[in-house]
Specification:
The complex is a heterotrimer of chains A (about 290), B (about 350) and C (about 260). Chain A is built from 11 helices and 2 strands; from the N terminus they run ααααββααααααα. By secondary structure, chain A is mainly α. Chain A has one domain. In chain A, strands 1-2 form a two-stranded antiparallel ribbon. In chain A, strand 1 and strand 2 form a beta hairpin. Chain A starts with a helix and ends in a 14-residue tail after the last helix. Chain B has one domain. In chain B, helix 3 runs antiparallel to helix 11, helix 3 packs across helix 12 and helix 12 packs across helix 13. Classes of the chains: A mainly alpha (about 290), B mainly alpha (about 350), C alpha/beta (about 260). At the B-C interface, helix 1, helix 8, helix 9, helix 10 and helix 11 of B face helix 2, helix 3, helix 4, helix 5 and helix 6 of C.
């Protein structure tokens, strides 16, 4: 294959997976900034989104309905997760909370095995998936869907956060929880909203990637971790930076896999994580004073 | 003042050190089953890993989500040295511990400058990198296909090639490890470590070189894990990278927390709980839910972990200690709840 | 009559936080065996100065000399190694240990046991442990709380925790103990007890430097005082000299006047 078309191919698949990481990374950043919790179970929402929508389609629902219903259900699962695992432990120490989310992610995975077994499943592509030729590279329409839907979601989120009252209330909690409380905003409600919304975003990510790489009970862990790396690279304090980090990771991984070795792509991502943590923990793109207490 | 007055300071109990070895020693006699022996060999191996992690997590107040890496380093070192190079397994064990220790120092120095989330993430990332390297260095480790043919251990001609012999071998190591750790806790080092959690700023002010001690405990815990990995390799004679992945690190963490991170016995309790519960679930779940395959028992461990952290943050060991102290009529060990806010007690006024 | 011998010298110490200068070009000397106070109205920079001497905050410029060593910008544990220990305004006892363990930890630097020796429980380890326990008990007796040795440190009443901090600070046989607002939060009875302890230890040769708001105590027990206002030194001398220093009087009265006017 010609080098330039290979580059475009890799770039494109990097953008695809990057957009998935971005959706999940946004969820991380929202949760972290509103509640202070690093939610290591974030990837499992993607897993649920994918598997639930597959089941709904199998039950006879049209794809668009399955997608919407699935996102709503995961939204509720997120809320349940907040009430049952996060809220009771909200005063606990940082390591404790991290381990609690690990515990939940394990439990989620176990439940997924119970319901769907261990065999990978697949979701039909959103549209006819005949490959498109673009500048000598071969691209799948589903990839375009993935990138497109992610970008649209990002724009919608941006609008919600900056133009609606609820969005601004959430932002207020991020900036100064005490003052927000004085203004009548209840952090507990915001916590619930933040986690549920992030869950919904995660579900969307899982649904969009399912036609490309399938869905199974263990898809959540690695996706979640990579998105995590993306959020840290971006700085954990603001959404656009996390998105930038996500695309960066996606592209780096894609190139590592294509040009070097697919096994080592994990080494690339996590080495980047370690480098960022050791050298510039505030992240590459972080705003100067984004230090979370 | 004399040595015996030290007991009041340490609020020590020797009961564990007497009862447990006796129980372990007679177990194979009372229950002569190879299956039970195998289970308890695994409990012992895991307890060894958890011993080191308990020192790190419960006493130095750090966290490690990547400890399986050291477990794997020990296993692969033993495998490679005894099989590929044909040297004595004891050399393999020692080399493994040295490699693990060196890597712990190299990784630890930048890592322990971090705190909280960042520390956890760094250890997680480290674990995954090492796991991936186990898979990728195929000529050395056999990659995903695994490493076959690891020989058994022998000591001056005595081969540890039966479950019974291996059982005693492993548990001798476990008890040596427990005694070593206890000695550390009941010493200047133990106090220095606990002081880091008691008040890091005061610890610093009193002259404790916090970074140095965090590193020392990390290296120690890496060596314990490596030793356990070596014991595993010679027992199962076939290893593959999946034994040393992120989930394994997390299972070790679960054992430490369920057993109780504030007590060295927690490592044994946690390992035993994990293995025994796992076996129970494997036997009963197919009866209750006949059509489900796969390892969904992990649900229980996930839920157990969450419930433990919320309602019983110090794990099972304080509960067991209370039970034992009833038999002894001695003062119950001073126990500090995990999240005590000391400032609330003294100043009365300002909270948070 | 002992000749005054400088044990600590602060030279042109400055701390800047961005545009704000919290401590500006402060210099003073502390003599061996003295009780030396650092006072000043609120916001004068006393705590910042204190934190620079104890290594908690790195100085922006200037030096701290202790005996003949330069301790500027060293870390807290290195400062302790040099022979300076401290107490904390907001009480930082080791919450997870008993009273005597707190003090034994205070003696950390005087012990030699390392990880390997401890793990193997060599005979010297046990000998050292017994010795340290005795030293710790002696420190507790000196401050008067030996009876509480095996209680959990955070369960002690406020005043006793303060005494514990002093016992812990004294355990490593330091040359200087820094006290951060030692009288804060104490009732009159507890204050008296604390003053007695400080005077007794001074008689045994200890040097004390303390930051304090309680004027009565400062005036009655200090040998010499340095006064800060807005980060700048406005006076240094004996209590009588300070009392009559017009700049000091203005700084304190001026404060009150402003409060009165703006109330």
């Amino acid at each position: 294959m010609e080098f330039s078309s290979q580059i475009i191919q890799l770039l494109f698949s990097g953008l695809t997976i990057g957009s998935i990481y971005a959706l999940i990374a946004i969820g991380f950043v929202i949760i972290y900034n509103v509640t202070g919790v690093l939610n290591l179970a974030q990837g499992e929402f993607a897993m649920f989104g994918a598997l639930i929508s597959i089941s709904l389609v199998k039950m006879g629902l049209p794809l668009w309905a399955a997608v919407i219903l699935s996102i709503m259900m995961v939204f509720l699962i997120g809320g349940l997760f907040e009430r049952v695992a996060i809220y009771p432990a909200r005063k606990a120490s940082v390591p404790t909370l991290i381990i609690i989310t690990i515990g939940v992610s394990i439990a989620f995975r176990g439940i997924a095995i119970l319901i769907w077994g261990t065999q990978p499943q697949s979701l039909q592509p959103f549209t006819d998936n005949t490959p498109i030729k673009f500048l000598n590279a071969v691209l799948l329409p589903q990839n375009i869907w993935a990138i497109g839907i992610s970008l649209v979601s990002l724009v919608v989120m941006f609008y919600l956060f900056n133009k609606t009252f609820i969005g601004k209330a959430l932002t207020a909690c991020v900036v100064n929880q005490f003052a927000a409380r004085l203004m009548g905003i209840k952090p507990e409600k915001m916590s619930l909203l933040a986690i549920s919304t992030s869950a919904g975003l995660g579900a969307l990510a899982g649904i969009v990637i399912a036609p490309i790489s399938g869905a199974s009970y263990d898809m959540g862990m690695m996706i979640g971790l990579k998105a995590f790396v993306a959020a840290v690279v971006g700085g954990l304090t603001n959404v656009p930076a996390a998105i930038g980090g996500a695309f960066l990771i996606g592209i780096l991984e894609s190139f590592a896999e294509g040009l070097w070795s697919s096994g080592l792509k994990d080494v690339v991502s996590f080495s980047l994580l370690l480098i960022i943590l050791f050298v510039k923990p505030e992240g590459i793109f972080a705003k100067a004073s984004g230090k979370r207490v | 003042m004399e040595k015996k007055d030290l007991k009041k300071v340490y609020h020590n109990s020797f009961i564990g050190l007497i009862i447990l070895p006796i129980l372990i020693a007679v177990l194979p006699v009372v229950i002569p089953s190879s299956y039970i022996l195998t289970i308890f060999i695994m409990v012992g191996i895991y307890a060894l890993v958890c011993n080191g992690m308990t020192m790190l997590i419960g006493y130095a107040g750090q966290i490690s989500l990547g400890h399986a890496a050291f477990y794997g380093i020990g296993a692969y070192s033993s495998a490679i040295i005894s099989t590929t190079y044909g040297l004595s397994p004891w050399i393999g064990m020692i080399v493994g511990m040295i490699i693990a220790g060196i890597i712990a120092i190299i990784v630890g120095i930048p890592t322990f400058k971090l705190k909280g989330h960042y520390l956890a993430l760094a250890t997680l990332g480290f674990g995954i990198i090492v796991f991936t390297l186990f898979k990728e260095f195929r000529e050395l480790t056999g990659g995903s296909n695994g490493f076959f043919g690891i020989p058994s251990i022998n000591l001056f001609g005595f081969e540890f090639n039966s479950d019974l012999r291996y059982f005693y071998l492993v548990w001798v190591f476990v008890f040596i490890g427990i005694i070593f750790s206890r000695n550390i806790i009941h010493s200047r080092i133990g106090r220095a470590l606990r002081s880091i959690e008691g008040s890091e700023i005061a610890s610093d002010a009193v002259g404790v070189n916090i970074m140095k001690y965090k590193l020392q405990v990390f290296v120690l815990s890496a060596m314990f894990a490596s030793l356990a990995g070596s014991l595993l390799a010679h027992y199962v004679s076939f290893i593959n990278p999946d034994l040393f992945g992120a989930m394994t690190s997390i299972y070790f963490l679960i054992m430490v927390i369920i057993g109780g991170s504030k007590s060295i016995w927690g490592s044994v309790i946690g390992a035993a709980t994990y293995v025994l519960l796992g076996e129970l679930l494997k036997h009963f779940m197919p009866i209750l839910l006949p059509n489900k395959g796969g390892e969904f028992e992990i649900v229980f461990f996930g839920i157990l972990l969450v419930v433990t952290l919320i309602y019983m943050p110090n794990g099972l060991s304080p509960q067991l200690e209370k039970i034992f102290s009833k038999f002894q009529k001695k003062k119950v060990t001073i126990e500090t709840p995990l999240q005590i806010n000391k400032k609330q007690i003294a100043s009365g006024g300002e909270n948070q | 009559m002992s000749e005054a011998k400088t044990i600590l010298k602060v030279e042109n110490l400055t701390k800047q936080f961005g545009g704000v200068v919290a401590v500006s070009d402060v210099s003073f000397k502390v003599n061996k065996g003295e009780i030396f106070a650092v006072i000043g109205p609120n916001g004068a920079g006393k705590t910042t100065l204190f934190n620079m001497i104890t290594g908690v905050l790195p100085a922006s410029s200037g030096n701290v000399f202790f005996e003949d060593k330069n301790l500027t910008r060293k870390k807290p544990y290195q400062i302790a190694q040099a022979g300076i220990t401290r107490t904390f305004q907001n009480l930082e006892v080791f919450s997870n240990m008993s009273v005597i363990e707190n003090v034994m930890t205070g003696a950390h630097l005087t012990m030699k046991t390392n990880l390997l020796m401890a793990g193997l429980r060599l005979p010297m380890v046990t000998k050292e442990e017994v010795k340290i326990m005795e030293t710790a008990m002696a420190c507790l007796e000196r401050v008067g709380i030996a009876g509480l040795a095996h209680e959990l440190a955070i369960t002690l009443p406020y005043g006793n925790q303060r005494l514990l901090e002093i016992a812990r600070a004294a355990a490593s046989d330091p040359k200087v103990i820094l006290l951060d607002e030692p009288m804060a939060g104490l009732n009159p009875e507890e204050s008296r007890q604390l003053v007695d302890v400080i005077l007794k230890m001074r008689e045994e040769g200890m040097t004390f430097i303390f930051v304090e708001h309680d004027m009565e105590t400062v005036m009655s027990i200090s040998d010499r005082i340095v006064v800060l206002d807005n980060g700048v030194k406005i006076g240094e001398g004996t209590p009588e000299e300070i009392y009559q220093n017009p700049k000091v009087v203005a700084a304190y009265l001026g404060d009150e006047e402003e409060e009165y006017v703006n109330a």
